[in-house]
Amino acid sequence: MEEQKQPAREPLEEISDSRREFLTTCSLAAPLLLLSLRAAEVAAFAAGDTPYNPKEHYYGMGVDVDRCIGCGRCVDACKTENDVPREPFYFRTWVERYVVTPEGETLVDSPNGGMSGFPPTHSEKGILRTFFVPKLCNHCDNPPCVQVCPVGATFKTEDGVVLVDQEYCIGCRYCVQACPYGARFIDPRTRTAEKCTFCYHRLVRGLLPACVEVCPTGARVFGEIQQRSSPLVRFTRRHKIHTLKGHLNTKPKVYYANLDEEVR
Amino acid sequence: MPQQLKSLLVVFAVFIGGLVAARHFLLPPTFGERGHYRAAAVVTIERLPVRYAGREACGVCHDEIASVHRNARHQTVACEVCHGPAVAHTESPTENKLPAPRERGYCPLCHGYDPSRPTGFPQIDPVAHNPLKPCITCHNPHQPEPPHVPGECSACHGEIARTKALSHHALLDCTQCHKTPLQHKIKPREVRPEKPLTREFCGGCHAQNARAPKNVPRINLETHGGRYVCWQCHYPHLPEAR
After folding, report:
1. How many helices (H) and strands (E) does chain B have?
2. pTM, whole model, 2 decimals?
3. Residue range of the domain that includes B16
4. A67, B78: Cβ pair inside 8 Å?
């Protein structure tokens, strides 16, 4: 048996030799490659150390519906500041117009997210109440979008902001589906999930989010939710506060004042 | 120990070791440093460029306009709302000029009449309100006071005027009780009218010996209402309500 097999193994031996060599090289090279990539990334990370300490902050936003005039400056500024595609459908923040008719029907529209203002309000069925409601990511304390991400590419930071890791997002859209507020979209250029960051790059520099910066009537109040003297906490003390879809237990951190019960 | 268990242990050890090694290499670096995510992703976001300079940025060079704007009715409207994002401008002003919205179509974005807007927000009908001329010929965009000041107290104190009009004090002019400087109508919060301060003031018409028309009801100024000022019991703009 043995003698008979020997001649047949000769050519095989040669192949497996070079394969073994190849595998050895690979097994040596792979960790080296990974290590060098890692080193580069760690170095890049270390260089980015800012004096900003996320542990000292916890952010939220207040929205006073009674002050919103539907001018859409927030939508426009958000797109400019964050390089959001200009076409409709892509919004990190948008403004909705509610019209409640005398029969109790609620009509909602948001032409181009309210970015160019609204055409005059008109309803064939009459108007009982009508008002504007700015919307954005609620930066939930218990974010459903984070739970469903299969690759851990979306997460809540220590300062309470829900962000997306653009490099690891695979664009699977689970988070877009999971968000009960419709606050996420897929960027057509990168094919990754996009959303409001509370203008995180501005926060770390001590600036306000762009939408808050340009709101002409102070309808948006931004700030700390764990410091009793912050403008936001004062805002929540002075008004009766509602959050959107509170029953879903998402624990939203966007606090609405003077919100009509019709708003969903 | 049986041989097969030994080789199984070896297999397990290799397997677990491989797993740990794979985890070490496959997990992105900086993962888990701050939480269940890649800390480097936060840094990438932190480094994104800023476009809006913020409310404090303009005053450094445009102090005149900024100080006018600070006290104007447009004080809540940031410069960059009208002039656009300005970080580039603050860095090199002459190379990056900012536009100014001089055309008539711009202001109605906020001031065009719309029932969805909150009541009390100043709105005009863009078709009927002084057509043909740009808004800024009559309104300074940085300090947009309406060019005419209202003549009547009721223009601003509507509620009080309507209450008084139905009261027993209907025929008294506001200025009989409130000496009002002209400036009050222009800077109402800074220049304030006088308010009656003493019982004797009302006594000027209501005391027994007051020189006033006969129909004015009289009281004994010494005893009536004790030592309290009259408006603790009588609302002066509706004195019959007690």
Report:
1. 9, 0
2. 0.66
3. 3-46
4. no
